[in-house]
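hey team, just a heads up i'm posting the complex here instead of the shared drive bc the drive is being weird again. everything in one block, sequence lines first with there labels, then the predicted structure for the whole assembly after. its five chains so it's a bit long, scroll down
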Amino acid sequence: MKELATLWLPLAVSALAVVALLVDLMLPVPPPGGARSKTPAPVVGWVVILGLAALFCVSFFHETNSGTAMHGAYRASYFATYLQRLFLMGGLLGALGGLDDVAKRTPHRQGEFWLMLLSSLAGMMILPGARDLLLIVVAFELMGIPLYIMAAYSKTDAEPTGAGVAPRGWASEAGLKMYLVGATSTAITLFGLALLTGMQGTTKLDLLAATPLSPLAALGLVFVLGGVGYKIGMVPFHMWVPDTYQGASTPFVAFLSVAPKAAGMSVLTSIFLFGLGAHKDVWLPPMAIIAFLSMGVGNLLALPQTDLRRLLGYSGIAQMGYVLVALAANDAMGLGMVLFFLTAYLFTNLGAFLVVHTAAEAGGGYTFASLSGLHRRSPGLALSLLMFLLSLAGIPFVIGFWAKLYVFLAAWRAGLIGLVISGIVLAVMGLFYYLRVLQAAYMTDEGDLPTPQPPPALQLAIGLCVLAVVGLGLWPRPLIEASTRAGVEMMAPLQAAQAQAAVKLTQR
Amino acid sequence: MTRPVMYALVALWTPAIAALALAALVPLRKKGWPAAAVAIFSSLVSLGSAIALFMDRLHDEVPQQLVAPWIHAGSTVVAEVGVRVDGISASMLVVVTLVATCVQVFSVGYMHDEPPAAYGRYFTLHALFLFSMNTLVIAPNILQLFAGWELVGVTSYLLIGFYFKKPSAARAAVKAFWVTKFADMGLLFGLLVLFAATGNFGWDAKLSHGVATAVTLLFFLAVVGKSAQFPLHVWLPDAMEGPTPVSALLHAATMVAAGVFLVVRTNPLFAQAPATRMVMLGLGAATALFAALLALVQTDIKKTLAYSTCSQLGYMVAALGAGSMLGGFFHLTTHAFFKALLFLAAGSAIHAVHSNEITDMGGLAKKMPITASAFIVGSLALAGVPGLSGFFSKDLVLEAVEGQLSNVPYAALMLTAFLTAFYMGKVVFVAFFGKPSNEKAAHAHESGLSMSGPLMVLMVPTVVAGYFGATFAHVQGEHYHFHFGTGPAVASSLGLAGIVLAYFVYGRGPRTEQPAAVALVDRIAKTRLVNRVYEYGFHNVTLVVASGLAFVDRYVVDGLINLLGYGAIEAGRKARPIQSGFAPDYVLAVVLGVVGLAVWAVFGSWR
Amino acid sequence: MIQSIGFGLVALCMLATAIMVVRSDNLIRATLWLGGTLLATAGLYAIVGASFLASVQVLLYVGGVMTLMIFGVMITRRHEGLDVPAESTGGVRGAIAAVLLFVVLAAAIDKTEGLDVLRVTPPTTTAELGRALLVEHVFAFEVLSLLLLGTIIGAIVLARKRDLGAAVRALHAPRPAAEIPAPPPSASGDDDASSKVAA
Amino acid sequence: MNSHLLSIIVAAPAIAALIVMFISERDGANSRLAIRLVSLVGAAISFAGSLVAIRTYDKALGGLQRVEDYPLIPSFGVHVKLALDGWGGPLLVLTGVILFAGVLASWTVKTRDREFFALLLVLTAGVFGVFVSQDLLVFFLFYEIAVLPMYVLIGIWGSSHKVPARGPFKFVWNIFDIGGKQYAAMKLTLMLLVGSAAIMAAIFVLFLKAGGTTFDMGVLANTKYDRQTQIIVFPLVWLGFGTLAGVFPFHTWSPDGHASAPTAVSMLHAGVLMKLGAFGVMRVGMVILPEGARYWVPVVGAVAAINVLYGAFCAMNQTDLKYIIAYSSVSHMGVVMLGAATLTTTGWNGAVFQMVAHGIMTGLFFALVGLVYERAHTRAILKMGGFANVMPGVAAFFTLGCLSSLGLPGTAGFVSEFMVFLAAWKSQHYFWAIPGVLGAFITAIYVLRATRSIFWGPGPSHDFHDLSDAKKTEWGAIVILGSCLVILGFWPRLILDYIDPGSVEYLGKVLAPVSALARLP
Amino acid sequence: MTLSHVLLLASALFSVGVYGLLTRRQVVAILLSVELMANAANLVFVAMSRFRGGVSGQIFAIFALALTVAEVAVGLALVILLYRAHSDTRVDLASELKQ
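-- predicted structure starts here --
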C-alpha cells in the first residue's frame, strides 16, 4: 500500500483515464441518422480538465519525494515530482486549449481523444521516476503510441477548406509520418537497449554504470540516444516535426510540442545522467554534436518558413538544442537548468501555438497574413503573442530570458564553451524569424480579417501561459530554486560517487 | 574682489545679461526697439566700466585677476575661467566697448527699415558679440581667450549671415566660419601642445625653443585666419555681405583684430620664438602689400575698406613680428577707431544711395557734410597724414620693422603706405567729390542723428588718439616717445604723394578706363586664384574623400553585414528541399544519424 | 556441433526469408516470407534454449502479426486477388545505408571482447520467467496493459468508418452541375464532417 | 521613500507604461490626453528623482551611495543592487531630460499612441536601470530591456520614408518583403543582439572566474582575473557594448535606424541608448578588466579616432537630414570612446561629459529634425531652403545644436571634446587627437552646410505650404534641451563635479598596480 | 555457435530490415521491414539472456513483442486512413507536407 502511495500521481492519472472512459460510456449515444447535427457538449473534456487541475493542486499538498516502489522499478523524488507537475500542467493547458477544437472537429468521438491524452500523460507521469529500462521503454511507448493516434485524430486537414475543395488528408499524413519515423526509432531503441542491457547485464539504471562499457554497449547506448532523440526532435531525427506540426490539429500540436519533449528529456536524463553519467566521455561528444546540429538546423530552416506551425516546429527543434547543451553539462546546475528551461518552454511554446491557432481560426490560415492587424483586432492576443515570442527569443523580463541565460551559463560552467558560443550566435540568428512573426502581428494591417474570438477555455489557457511567462520572468526565484533543488537532489550523490570513483582510480 | 576686477566683471556681464534677456524674453526681442535700447544700455554700462578700469590702470600697474576652476580632473585643475585686469586688457576693453557702443547707436538708424523681429535679433547678436569679445579680452588664460575667440567667430558668422535670405550672404557667412574654424585648429593644437608642456594655459611659461616655436606657429595659424592674413584672407571681403555696422565693428575694428590681440596677449611666448616672429614679419608685410594692391582695384566701397583692413592688419602682424608689441597694439587701437569711422561713414553713404559701388555715388560731400568729413578724416588717418592718429601708430610700426630682414618688409610697408593713400584718395574723390552719378546720389541727404552722432564721436579719437601714445604705452608698462625721424617723414610724404596722385587720376571727373598699372592688378585680381585653390580643394579633395568613404560605408561595411544576413537566409532557403515530404527520406536521415553515432561509438576515441 | 549446424541452417533460413521479405515483388508473398523469418527466429530461440519465447513467438507473433498484416493488405485493396505489387525504389541508397550499418555493427561485435562464449546457460524455466514478469516487472506489465487498451481503442477510432450510409447518400445527393465534383466519401477523412454534410 | 529613490526612478516609467496600457482608447480626445499626461508624470517623477539623487550625492565622499539591494535569485548571486556612483547621477539626469523632452516632442503622435508611449517608457526604465545597476546580470537585463523596444518603435512608428536596403545584397531583404523601416529595425535589433551575445559570453566568464557566486560589479572589479582571460574577454565587452556605441565597423545600424525611427525614439536612441554602449565599455569592460583594457586601448583609441573622422566624412556626403545627424552621432560617439581609451581622469571625465553633452545635443537635433520633417514632409536637405523665414525658432535652436556639435566654446560640446582631445594629446597616443580635432572641423563643414541649405536662402518654395514654427509642447522639448546645452557649456562643473569622483575611483582600479588588488579564488 | 555469431545474425537481420525500410514504397511493406528490425532486437535480447545469464533479456523480449504488436495495430489504422484519402497505400502519396 505504501508503494502505491509512492506511485499515487501516475496511478491517479491512469485512474482519471478510466474515469474519462466511463463518463464517455455513460453519455447518451446519439441516435443513428438524422439528429446528429447538434454538437455534443465537451463533457469528458471538462472532466479531464478538472481532474488534471485537481491533481496539479493536490500535488503541492501531498508531495511524495522519496521512497521506491515495485521492486525498485520506480523511485519517487523531487525531480520526479517536479516533472510530473510539469506534465500535469502541460496536459491541463493542452486540454484547455484543445477542448473546443476537439468538440468542433470530431464531435462524436471526443471521449476517445481524452482517453488518448490521458494515456499519453500517464506514460509521462511514470517516466521521471522509472529506474528500470524496461519500465522506461514501456512507459515511453505508452506516451508515444497515443500521440500517433491523436496526431491523425481529425483525419483531415486542420485548415478550414472552402466548398467543393477536397479535404486534404493532412492529419493522416501527419500521423503517418510521425508513426513511420517513430516506429523506426522504436526498433532502433529496442535494438540498442538489447545490446546495452545485454552487455551490462542489467536493466536497472543504478547498476548500469557498474560495468565498463564495451564498444557494443556503447553502440547500444548511441542507438538509444538516436531512438529517444526522435521524440525530442533532435537533428537528424527531427524530420517528422515540421510536417506533423503542420498537419495535425494545432491545439494538439501545442501539447505535442512541449510535454512529450519534456518527457523525452526526462528519459535522456535518466539514462545518460543517472544511469551512465560516469561514462560521459562516450555520449557527450555525440550529444554535443547533436545539440549543435539541432540549434543550427532548427534556426536555419526556420528562417524561410511561411507557415507559422512549421516555423514554430523548427524553432522548437532549435530550442531543444539549447536544452541538450545544458544536459550535456552533466551536473546539478545543468540538470536544474534543463528543468527550468523545459518549464519555461512549456508555457511559452504552448501559448504561442494556441495564439497562432486562435488567430488562424479567425481567418487567413496559418500564414503570416493571419496575424495581420492582430494588434488592432485583438490587442490582448497580440500582446500575448509578443510575450511568447520574446520568451522564445530569450529577451528579458519574460521567462525565456532566464531560461536561455541559465542554460548557457550552466553549460559554460561545465566547460562546453564552444557549444555555448555557437548556441548564442545561432540564437541571435533565430531572432530574425521571431521578429518576423512579431512584425506580422504588430506592423502590418492589411485585409480585413474578423476579430478572433477564442472560446473561454482557450482564453484561459492562453491567459495562464501569459501569466506564467511574465510572472515567472519578473520573479523567477521560486522556479529557479525548485529546479535547482531537483537538479541537486539527483546529481549531487552521483557526482560525489563519481568523484569517489575517480579518486579510487587514481589511487589504484 | 577688488574694484578693478569688479569693473571688469561688470563690463563682461552686462552685455551677457542683455544678450540672455533678449534671447529669453521673446516679446522684448520681437518688438524691435526695446532690444536696441537694452543692447545699447548694456554697451554703455560696459563702456563706462571699461573707462573706469582704464583710469584705474593709469595708477595701478599690478595685474589683478580673479579665477575659478572650470574643468578639473581629480585634484588637478585643468582649466580656469575668470578675469584678468592689466594694461592690455583694459586698453583693449575700452577700444572694444567704445567702438561697439558707437556702432550700436549708429545701427539704430541704419537698420531702421528692418522688420522688428530682425531688428531685435540684430541687437541681440550685438550684445552677444560684445560679451564674447569681452570674454576674449579679459581672459586670464589662453583657453578662455580661445573660448571668446570662437564665440566671436560665431557671432561673426551669424551677423554676416544676417540677411540670410540672400544666398550670397549665406555663402559668405559659412565661408567665413569655415576658414576661421580651419585656422582655429591651430590655436586648439597650440593649446594642446602648450598644456602638454606646461600643464596650464597661461602665457608666461618658459618653454624650450622647439616647443615655443611649435606653439607660436600653431597660434599664428589661428591669427592668420582670424586676422585675415594671406592666404586665409579670402573670407574677409566676402564678409562684407553683412550689414555695414557689423563690418565696422567686427570686420574692421575688433574681431579681426583679435588675432593681433592674441599675439599681444601671448607676447611672452612669442618672444621666445624668433623663428615664428620672422614668419610673422614676412607674412604681415606681404599681406599688407598684397591686400593694398587688391584694394586698389575694388569699386565696392566696403570691399575696398575690407582689403584695406587686411592690409592694415598686415602692418600690425609685421610690427609684432618685428618684436614691437607696442607698435602692433597701438596701431590696432588707432586702426579700430579710424576704420570703424570709415566703415560707418561708408555705411551712412550707402544708406543714402542704396548702393555699395563708389561709381554710384559722387558729389556726396555737399549733400552729406558730416559723413563726408568723417570719411575724409578717417581716410587721412589711414593714409598716415601727419597729426592724425594713423600717422603715429604707423610710424611706430615702420620704426620697428626698419632694418629687419634686409629691409624688404620695410620697403613693402612703405609702398603699402603709398598705395593706401592712393586707393583711399580714389574712394574719396570718386564718391564724395565730382558730380552725382545718378538720381539717388543726387537726392542723397545727411543721415539722422543716430548715425551722424557716432561718426562725430569717433572722429575725436581718430584725430587725437595719436597724442595719447605715451599714456597708452604707460598703461602697457612700456615707454613711448615720439620723435619725427626719417621714417615718418618718408612715410607721410609717400602718403601725401598717394593722395595727390589719386587726385590727378580720379579727382578730375569720371574716368572710363583705369591706369595701366591698376588694370593689370585688376586682371590678376579677377582670376581669384586663392579662392579657386580653396574651392578646388574643397570640391575635389574633401568632398571626394567624403563620397568615397560614404560609398565604402554603404557598399562595403554595410554590404558585408547584409551579406551575412543573406548568407543565413539563403542557406535556409537552399536547405529547405532536404525536407522533401517523402517519409523514406526522413527514415534515411534517422538511419544515417544512427550510423554516424554508431561510428563514433565504435571507432571513437572515448576510451 | 549439431547445435552449430542447426544454427547455420536456421540462420540461413532467416536471412534468406528476410531478404525475400524486402525484395519480393508481391506484397502478400512478402508478408508470408516474414512469417518464415519469424518462424526461423522461433527455431533459433529453441536452439538457444528459450523455449517459452519460442512458443510465444510462434503463437503471438507469427499468428498475431501475420494475420494483422495480411488483413491490412487485404483491406486496402479492391479485390485484385493476391497479386499486390510491393513497389521498391532507391535500392542502391538503401543497400549502401544497410551495408554501412552492418559494417559498423560487425565491427563493434568484432571489437568487443568476451562475446565468443559457447556456454548456453541452463534453460530458463517458465516459472522463472513468470516470476520475473509478474513480480519484478509487474508495474511494467500493468503499464503495458494500459498501453494495449489505449492502442486498441485508438486504432479502432481511427480505422472505423462510422455511418457509411450517410456518406454514400451524400455522394449521390443531387448537386449543382457547376460545382466541382465532390470528393469521394472515402477520401473524406472525417466521417463526422461528411455526415454533417449529409444531415 | 527617500531610501528607495533609485527604485522609484527606475520603476516610475515602467509603472506609467503599465497604466498607459490600461487606459481605454474609446474615450477619444480625453484618453489621448490621459495617455500623454500619465507618461509625462512618469517621466517627470523620474526626472525629478534623478535631480534629487544628484543633488544629494555626496561628491566629497564619492563611491556608491544610496545602495539598494533586493535579492532576485540569491542562490545564483543575482541581486537587484541599485546604487548611485559619480557617473550615474549625470547620466540619470540626462535620461530624465531626454525622456521628458521626448514625451513632449511626441505629443502629436497620431497612430496607436497608447502602445507608443508604453514602449517609450519601458525603454527608458531599462536605461535608468542600466545606469544605477551594480549587479552585472541585472545591468545586462536592463540593457536588453532598453534595446529591444526599439524594434517595435521603429517598425511601427518609423517614418514611412523608404530606407532601402543597400549594398550588393539588398535583394535579400526584398525577397522577404522587408523594406524601409522594417529593414532598418531588423538590422538594428539583430546587430545589437549580436553584441549582446558577446556581452553574455563575457558575463559568463567574469562570473565563473570570480567564483560563480555573485554578479556584484564591485566584487567582480576587485577580482583579479588572469591576464589571458582579460585579454580575451575585453574585446567581447568592447565590441558587444561598442556595437550600441556605434564603434566602427559595427555602426551601420545607426544611420538606417535613426533615419527611420520616430522623433522621440531617435532622441532616446541617439541621445541615451548609444551612451549605454559606451557606458558599458567603460563601466564593465575597463573597470572590471583593467589589464585587458590596458592591453587593448591602443586599438580602442585608434578605432575611436577612425570613428570620429569616418563618421564626419560620411555625414558630409549625406543629403538626408536624419542621415546627417545619425552619422554625426557615430562621429561623436567616437569622441566618447576616444576619451575612454586615454585612460586618464581628464579623458574619462571628457568621455562621460561627452555622453551627456552629445545626448542633449543629439536629442535636440532629432527633436528639431522631427519638427521639420513633420511640416516639410521631406528630409532631403537639397529640396529645402529658407525655412528660417517661417520657423525662426527652430532655425535658432538648430543652429545652437550645430554649434555644440562642432565643439563651440560656451556649449557643452566644447567642454567634453576639449577634455578628450587634451587627454588624448597627453596620453601615449598623442596622434589620436589629430583626427579628433580634424573631425570637429569636418563637423563644422557639414552641419553648417546643412543649416544653410535648410534654413537660409530665399524663402521656402511653394511645395512647402504647412510650415510653421514649433508649437506649445514642442517648445518645451527644445527649450529644455537647448538651455541645458548652454548652461553646461558655461558651467560644466554642474555635472563635472559628480563625474569626477567616479572617474577617479574607477580609473584608480584600472591603473592600480596588480599587487594592490585583493585576490579572490 | 557463439554469442558473436548470433549477434552477427541479428545485425544482418537488422540491416536487411533497414534496407527494406529505405526501399519499400508500400506502407505495409515498410511495416514488414520494421518488424524485421524489431525481430532482430528480440533476437539480441534472447541471445544475450541465454548466453550471458539473467532472465531480464527474455522478459524484455516479451515486452518488446507486445509493444511491436501494438505499434503495428496503430500502423495499420494509419494505413487505412491513407487508403481512404488516396485509394492507395503508397507512402509517397503522403508527401503534401514538406519543406
